Amino acid sequence: MKACVLLVSACLVMGCATLQPTEEAALPTGLPESWTSEVAAVELPIAASFLEWANEEALNELVREAVEKNFDLRATAKRLEAQGYLLGLTRGQMLPQAQATLSSGRNDLDTGAYNHHRGSVGVNWELDLWGKLADEHAAATGAYKAAEQDWQRLRDALAARVIQTWIEQVAFRRAVAIESERLEVLQTVESLLTERYRDGTGNLDELSTARSRTEIARADLSLQRAALNESIRRLELLVGRFPRGELLSGVTLPVVVAPVASVPADALENRPDVQAVLARVEAARRTMRSAKKEALPSVRFSGEVFRESARLGGLNNAVDQWSILGSLFQPLFQGGRIRSVSRARVSEAEAALLDLHSVVLQSLKEVEDSLDVEESLRVQAEALAIAADESESSSRYYEDRYRKGLDSLQSMLIAKEQEMAVKLRLNDVRGRILINRIDLALALGTSAETGNI
Q: Nearest 5°: phi and psi at 266?
C-alpha cells in the first residue's frame, strides 16, 4: 500500500507542471449593444415559438405534422440518438473494467502429461490522475451537445419553412385569382373588339393588340398556377406526405407580427447554431487537453481472483487465489506521435474558435439583413397600397367614361391592366413581409419548441 501511495505521489509531482486551466467557451467580447437598422416593429411583442404566430390552427397542425413526420428531421434525430449511446464508450473508460475467463489446456512435461483448467475474474483500472479520460468524455459530450443543437436548428428551420411555404402558397393563390380576373377582363374586351371588327366598326390593329394581351395574360396565369402547384407539392414534402398536389392552404394570409430585435448578445444566446459552435469549441479544447496529457505518466491497477484444477468439475472445490498489480507507464519515445497529435489538436481548437467568430458575424448579418428588408418592404407595402387604391379609382373612372362614350376602350384597358399589375405587386410584397419576419425570428433565435412538439 505504501508503494502505491509513493507511486501516485511521484506521478502528481511530475504532471502538475504541465496542467494549465482553460477558460470556458463563450461568445466573443465587444459585441454591438444595438442593431444598426431601425425598425418600427421594435415595440411589438416577440412570440416564444413559431406556433404562437399563426392565427390558423390548420397551419399549426401542419407544423406539428412536419416536426413529427419529416424524413430528414427523423433521420437526424436517429443519428443523434446513436451518438448519445456512444457517449457510454468514453464514460466507461473512467470505470474499472471486469471480465471473467475460463480456460482449459493440456501440459506435457517430463513428469507426465496432465490437464489444466483455470477460472478467473479480473479487474483492470487506469487511474485518471490528470483528468485525461474525463477530458475525452467531456469532448464527446460537447460533440453530442453540438449535434443536439444542430438538430434543434434543423427543426426550427423546418417549422419556419412550413409557415413560409404556407404563406407563399396563399400569395400564389391570390395571384392566380388576380390573373384570372385580368384574363377575364381581356377576354371580354377581345370579344367586343371581335364583334366590332365583324360589324365593320372596328379595326384589325385594335383586335390584334387585344388578342396579344389576352394571350400574354393566359401565359401569366399558367405561370402562376404552375408556381402554386409546385408550392403545394413542396409543402407536402416538408410535412412528409406524398407530393400529390392536394394540400391547399387558406385564402388569407396569416397574421405574423415582427419580433422584437433584442440586443445582439441575447439573440446570439438563443440561436442553436451559435450554441452548437460554442459546444464544438469546448469539445475541441477538451480534446486538446487530453492530447497534451498523453505525455504524462499513467498509473494502472489490475487484480485477479482465480481457481485452478486438473479437472473442470474440480474448480468448485479449488482454493481461491488472487494477485494485485500496480504499474507506472511513462511514454519515452514514440517517433513524435504524441507531439504531432498534440499540435494538431491545438490547431483544431484554434480553428473551432475561428469558426465561432465566423458564425457570430454571419448571425449578426442575418439579423441586420432581415431588419433592412422589413423596413424596405414596409415602405413598399405602404406605397403600393396607396397606388392600388388610386389605380382602382382610375380604372372605375375610365370604365365609366367608356360606357358613356367619352373615352376609348384602349384607355379603359390600360387603366384596368395597371390596376391588376399594382394588385399583383402589393400581394407579392405582403407575402414577402411575412416570409421575411419568419426569417427574422429564426435569426433572433425564436424556436419551434412547444408543449406539443
A: -65, -40
